[in-house]
Amino acid sequence: MQLFTQQVIQLLAKPLAEHLNEADISQLIEVPKIATQGDLAFPTFRLAKLLRKAPPLIAQEVAAQIESEEFDVTAQGAYVNFFVKRPVLAKTVVGTVLEQAERYGSSEEGRSQKVIVEYNSANISKDMHHGYIRGLMIGASLDKIARSLGYETVTINHLGDYGINFGMIIVAFKRWGDREEVERRGVSALNELYVRFRREVEDDPELMTEARQWFKHLEDGTSQEALDLWTWFKEVSLRDYDLVWQKLGSQFDSFAGEAFYSDMMPGVRRELIEKGLIVQEDGAELIDLSSENLPNIIVTTSSGNSLYITRDIAAAKYRKETYDFARNIYVVGSEQRLHFQQLKAILKKMGYDWYKDIVHVDHGLIMLAEGKMSSRKGDVILLNDVLESAIERTRKLIEQKNPDLEDKAEVARQVGLGAIAFKELYTSRIKDYVFDWDDALSFEGETGPYLQYTNVRCHSLINRGGQMTGEIDYSLLNDDFSNELIRELARYPETVQSAFERYEPALISRYLIGVAKLFNKFYQQVTILSNQPAEKIARLALVRAVSTTLENGMKLINMEAPKRM
Ligand code: ARG
Prior knowledge:
Layout: H1 5-13, H2 22-28, E1 40-43, H3 45-51, H4 55-65, E2 71-76, E3 79-84, H5 86-100, E4 114-118, H6 133-148, E5 152-156, H7 164-176, H8 179-185, H9 187-200, H10 206-220, H11 224-248, H12 265-274, E6 278-281, E7 284-287, E8 297-300, H13 308-323, E9 327-333, H14 337-349, E10 358-363, E11 366-367, H15 383-401, H16 408-426, E12 433-434, H17 437-441, H18 448-465, H19 480-490, H20 492-501, H21 506-525, H22 533-556
Parallel strand pairs: 4-5, 4-9, 9-10, 11-12
Antiparallel strand pairs: 1-3, 2-3, 6-7, 7-8
Helix pairs in contact: 5-19, 5-22, 7-9, 7-10, 15-16, 18-21, 18-22, 19-21, 19-22, 20-21, 21-22
The chain binds arginine.
Arginine (ARG) is lined by residues 118, 121, 123, 158, 160, 312, 315, 330, 332.
């Protein structure tokens, strides 16, 4: 309803001229949740205080002074309510959607501001299991949403490519590994070596000593062999991960991961000491965070090693210096909530006022019926297999239902992956949920395929409608079904904005389902391809606006929109 805010401000400006300026009015205007309370509403509490009068009295006085062709204006309790008249609503909303087309819902509010979206942050040598889908979808979606709002984004995959694990895998590879097998089977072979190390080390603690040595070599750069193996593990892993990223259309601007920051550790340590933030305890160095009501945290171990948090301190500083971000978003599971609270608190204590711009976008877990997936034990479902399987299942469905469809393989890809994307982004990000195949791929109810199908229906109407020329008479979109649908279309830009403000793509998914449902009601109740040409033209204009909105929205939640299915 933001499309009408400016007009409402103008209407209020005159009667309120002595008390409030336009900026004040603009701040006070609300979009009521309930339709009977108007499309926009102005609360009079603030005026009531100023004028020492009862709010309902003021509401009545203000309403009485407003005359408008575009709005019905009424006083209800303490509010002045504005109802956009139907023809005005239709003309403004549908007209705007058609004119702005793929730009409808986008804006310039983020212009010349940079937003970092860190997501996926895969752990090298570990399988990319199905549990990663959540963060991948949220991250990719927030990237698109931010860009549509005019922000410049930088996507970062903060690789987990550092730590004692790499010592373990080197030991395992040298003992039990086979180069050719790793080349052939990729990251899964590396993951198995890691799992085997974990198993064998229980009976042979000596293995751990070896692993430490190899990691030390890596850290100090004292062994070319260690470095070569690490580099190769990374190549093999990225090659496999890329299969997933390609399918999901994820693109990363930077892969600066933990190892990238290892050189900066001495500098971080020095700075923490100089700023008086370090407390010694049993040979380790820690930061006291009690003033922030958080547990203390070790930043250097007693053997002088940096930790996960230390590398994150370096990474945050590096990102600020390199990108001068307006926001630095980390899409990471909610089990790391404390970690990011501590990171923020440390940066605050270091005197960086941009600590406020650090945002942990946390999300819940996906569980299999049998429990959380663990790459340590090796009981995982690979994400790539899930995606392949979604495409394959969809292909079979198409084969049954619509065997003559052109481009079957392409549509199966769009619909299968769309189903998965939607499933991930329909549940609020913070909720855990249990993954279920049939549910994820169901084409009924609130699903991705339902959205896609609704949009296909729009396209088929547009095609059947034939060439359209002539003025659109918006006053013909006067029935309740059209009106309700148009009202919903008007909410799209503000939905995209809140999705970004709350880092919650699910707001867009739910919104789109709402549009699809209203459209399908309209489709059933109203003869769209009316034999009255003027009616047909107006209704098809609305259909085009629905399709544009659905397509724009689907793009933001990582879905493609086939024209046929
Ligand atoms: N690789 C880490 C993990 O799997 C996640 C990294 C999150 N990002 C960060 N900047 N700490 O636990």
